[in-house]
């Protein structure tokens, strides 16, 4: 019972298992989890993206991960505790950057996972991996018992790849990104922000962004920057000019903090699987692909003054977005 | 029931590539709709075209041969567009066609793609004026000196010409993809529904619409439910119903408030805990909702069942019909290949006694509500020759006892799906869209039934 032309994969359990204690239930749950995650990430690439489909997949993902919580005894067989699969889901979801609607605010309420937990849960990843090899290594990792977590992580990497990949950049379509161009000005502001951030792989909703980027940086740090800190990587960069810009953009303003490596990471496009060992040596072309939409912002609603928020997020950058000088930023990145 | 097992169906189909296995994507039929008298049948396809079929008058010589449907008009309704503001392509696929009740010689229909609804006027011209004073037969201006007398132009018969012209364009009101349109019984307004909002329009006013339902959450991360279909009540111009991806139906009364976010009635069947699976929500998503002609009942279709609801009973459906329950054990695979997201439509017959819906392998099902009998039929070239009688089909569960001509679940072709079906408003004539082919079946013993 396969679509024509598709290679037959090992068939899942055909019989729906309602009994939680059955071992088949767990394998089914994992199968559904991985398939859902895959669909979630690739929803953009469909010729006809459908909001209904995306919402249903997101709900299924949420349900599957919540059921993992509800059955911790079964999950104990796997090396990570149940929180890891949901935490991986949390990380992977917030880094998906495809659909703002599908960021799992429900999952955020699940026990948050610290960096320590995550590094514990991903034992094999402590060894520094070059970006070129990471896909193969993750592929082999999927064989071990940490199936769901590694599947989640590989999905994250796929998502990161796809955001920079030129082919997918051609026509990424999100029904959700087509936000109101007719409604109130405040919404229009959000719409502009969303469109501009397409270079980062999708739109963002307001409060999630800071958290999302933090999570993404945590994950990236854990997985292949374990020997480097972000500060190390950035110590060569002359951030004095960048600080001025970021202040203008409100990233520093009311937050009060000085520029940190995390802040810069929020600026930067996600990693690609480029051969150079230095993860930050992105090619100029890739940078241009990722950043140009920043300059496409127009004047936004003046009603949105810089709110005082602890975590900077893009939607507050409204009217000062036009102050961003793309070439100026490019110089800073290239210098590094 | 057995009407189609006894009747010779008339097969009319259009297949642009009859002997090829592949299908031109633009030819895939995306909607089918009879007009209010059943004389006209409109189909829309993925290429943005609308084809209207007209029923030929019954022939006097063969009293038992009903009129066949022939092509009446073809026009391009929607073109592909590009939204430069958001860098998004807007497909030209016709999502829905709805006819307006006929009020003069012309016919009007509404057709919609994902974003724009258009009102089209379909009129006939079979006479043209001849004998102009200033122009000759070819239209050239006459030399004034040659005109010696005045004549009155007269209307002379000509070959029938069907003219289709766009009368209204209702645009820029939907951020999300329009999935339904429904004409109100007041014949002045209609509604259009997208994934999160429903707008009310006046047929004569294109530059504004009223938003009557908005389920968009303040925070898009909280979005867990979308609107899947909507329809006005056939008689009460203040009532409409919309269905959701969570399997609920909401009946709203426009007299209660300007914004009908708060429903008057909520129709929802409580979930059976023993049947719960990972896909419970997905398969409960309602793909189509139709009021009965009487206005008393609602017909809904979700992935595995068709349900009839009584408007007076919100707690559970009146009747539940299993369309293809043999797929229940295959949901994992169907989820993987995306078939679980297919949106099947459903239809009532004229007397609300039989319901019909499509399935896979080009099968479609009919359920008689009175006799509780049901039948599975196939719409395909191989099994349907003109004037041939359709043979009932049977799907046997995997491993079950198999009779001759039965099809096993694992042999079903999931690329052949009957998503769009329509039933003539008064007679037993049905239109089935199978990918790029349209099948029209009629019942010979028309007058005896129902």
What can be said about this structure in brief?
The complex is a heterodimer of chains A (336) and B (450). Chain A is mostly helical and 336 residues long.
Low-confidence stretches of chain B: 1-20, 446-450
- Whole-Å distance between the termini of chain A? 53 Å
* Oligomer state of the chains in this structure: heterodimer
The class by helix and strand makeup of chain B works out as mainly beta
The best one-word shape of chain B is: globular
Computed CA radius of gyration of chain B, to the nearest angstrom:
24 Å
**Helical percentage of chain A:** 40-55%
Describe the largest sheet of chain A: none
Please provide the count of β strands of chain A.
0
**Structural class based on helices, strands and sheet pairing of chain A:** mainly alpha
Number of helices in the DSSP assignment of chain A: 16
Helix content of chain B: under 10%
Low-confidence stretches of chain A: 9-14, 73-147, 156-226, 250-259, 264-322
Main beta sheet of chain B: 4 strands, antiparallel
Describe the structure.
The complex is a heterodimer of chains A (336) and B (450). Chain A contains 16 helices and no strands. Chain A is mainly α and 336 residues long. In chain A, helix 1 runs parallel beside helix 8 and helix 4 runs parallel beside helix 8. Chain A is globular and about 60 Å long. About 66% of the residues of chain A have low confidence. Chains A and B meet through helix 1 and helix 2 of A and helix 3 of B. Chain A: It comes from Gymnodraco acuticeps (Antarctic dragonfish). Chain A: InterPro entries: E2F-SERTA_domain_protein (IPR052262), SERTA_dom (IPR009263).
Main features:
heterodimer, A: 336 residues, mainly alpha, 16 helices, B: 450 residues, mainly beta, 4-stranded antiparallel beta sheet, 3 helices, 31 strands, 3% helix, disordered C terminus, protein phosphatase regulator activity (chain B)
């Amino acid at each position: 019972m396969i679509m024509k032309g598709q290679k037959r994969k090992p068939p899942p359990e055909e019989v729906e298992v309602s009994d939680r204690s059955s071992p088949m239930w767990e394998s089914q749950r994992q199968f559904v989890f991985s398939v859902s995650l895959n669909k979630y990430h690739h929803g953009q690439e469909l010729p006809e993206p459908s909001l209904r489909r995306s919402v249903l997949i997101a709900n299924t993902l949420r349900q599957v991960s919540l059921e993992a919580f509800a059955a911790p005894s079964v999950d104990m067989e796997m090396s990570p505790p149940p929180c890891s699969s949901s935490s991986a889901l949390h990380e992977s979801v917030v880094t998906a950057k495809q659909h703002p609607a599908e960021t799992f605010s429900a999952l955020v309420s699940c026990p948050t996972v610290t960096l320590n937990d995550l590094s514990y849960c991903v034992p094999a990843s402590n060894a520094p991996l070059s970006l070129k090899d990471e896909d193969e290594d993750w592929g082999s990792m999927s064989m071990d018992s940490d199936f769901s977590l590694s599947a989640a992580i590989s999905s994250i990497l796929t998502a990161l790849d796809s955001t920079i990949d030129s082919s997918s950049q051609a026509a990424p379509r999100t029904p959700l990104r087509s936000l109101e161009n007719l409604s109130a000005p405040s919404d229009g502001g959000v719409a502009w922000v969303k469109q501009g951030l397409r270079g980062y792989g999708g739109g963002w909703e307001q409060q999630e962004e800071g958290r999302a980027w933090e999570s993404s940086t945590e994950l990236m740090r854990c997985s292949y920057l374990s020997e480097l800190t972000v500060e190390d990587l950035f110590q060569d960069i002359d951030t004095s000019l960048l600080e001025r810009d970021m202040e203008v953009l409100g990233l520093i303003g009311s937050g009060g903090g000085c520029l940190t490596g995390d802040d810069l990471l929020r600026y930067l496009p996600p990693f690609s699987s480029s051969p150079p060992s230095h993860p930050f040596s992105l090619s100029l072309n890739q940078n241009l692909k990722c950043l140009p939409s920043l300059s496409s912002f127009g004047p936004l609603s003046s009603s949105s003054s810089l709110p005082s928020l602890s975590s900077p997020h893009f939607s507050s950058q409204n009217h000062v977005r036009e102050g961003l000088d793309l070439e100026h930023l490019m110089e800073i990145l290239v210098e590094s | 029931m057995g009407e189609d097992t006894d009747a010779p169906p008339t097969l009319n189909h259009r297949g642009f590539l009859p002997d090829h296995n592949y299908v031109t994507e633009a030819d895939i039929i995306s909607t089918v709709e009879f007009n209010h008298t059943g004389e006209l049948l409109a189909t829309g396809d993925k290429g943005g075209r609308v084809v209207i079929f007209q029923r030929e008058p019954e022939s006097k010589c063969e009293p038992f041969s009903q009129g066949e449907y022939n092509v009446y008009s073809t026009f391009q309704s929607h073109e592909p567009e590009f939204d430069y503001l958001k860098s998004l392509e807007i497909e030209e696929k016709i999502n829905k066609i709805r006819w307006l009740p006929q009020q003069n010689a012309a016919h009007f229909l509404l057709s919609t793609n994902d974003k724009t609804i258009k009102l089209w006027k379909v009129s006939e011209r079979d006479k043209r004026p001849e004998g102009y004073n200033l122009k000759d037969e070819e239209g050239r201006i006459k030399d004034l000196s040659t005109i010696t007398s005045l004549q009155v132009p007269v209307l002379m018969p000509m070959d029938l010409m069907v003219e289709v012209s766009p009368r209204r364009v209702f645009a820029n009101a939907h951020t999300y993809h329009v999935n339904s349109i429904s004409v109100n019984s007041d014949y002045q307004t209609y509604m259009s529904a997208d994934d999160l909002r429903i707008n009310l329009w006046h047929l004569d006013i294109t530059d504004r619409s009223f938003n009557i339902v908005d389920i968009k959450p303040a925070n898009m991360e909280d979005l867990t439910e979308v609107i899947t279909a909507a329809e006005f009540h056939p008689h009460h111009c203040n009532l409409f119903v919309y269905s959701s991806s969570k399997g609920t139906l909401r009946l709203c009364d426009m007299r209660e408030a300007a914004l009908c976010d708060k429903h008057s009635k909520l129709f929802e069947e409580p979930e059976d805990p023993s049947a719960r699976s990972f896909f419970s929500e997905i398969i409960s998503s309602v793909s189509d909702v139709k009021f009965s002609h009487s206005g008393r009942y609602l017909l809904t279709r979700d992935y595995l069942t068709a349900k009839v609801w009584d408007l007076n009973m919100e707690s559970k459906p009146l009747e539940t019909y299993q369309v293809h329950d043999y797929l229940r054990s295959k949901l994992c695979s169907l989820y993987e290949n995306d078939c679980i997201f297919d949106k099947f439509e459903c239809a009532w017959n004229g007397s609300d006694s039989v319901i019909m819906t499509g399935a896979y392998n080009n099968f479609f099902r009919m359920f008689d509500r009175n006799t509780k009998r049901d039948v599975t039929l196939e719409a395909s070239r191989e099994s349907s020759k003109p004037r041939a009688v359709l043979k009932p089909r049977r799907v046997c569960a995997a491993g079950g006892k198999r009779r001759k001509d039965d099809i096993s679940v694992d042999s079903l072709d999931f690329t052949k799906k009957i998503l769009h079906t329509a039933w003539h408003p008064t007679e037993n004539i049905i239109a089935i869209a199978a990918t790029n082919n349209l099948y029209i079946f009629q019942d010979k013993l028309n007058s005896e039934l129902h």
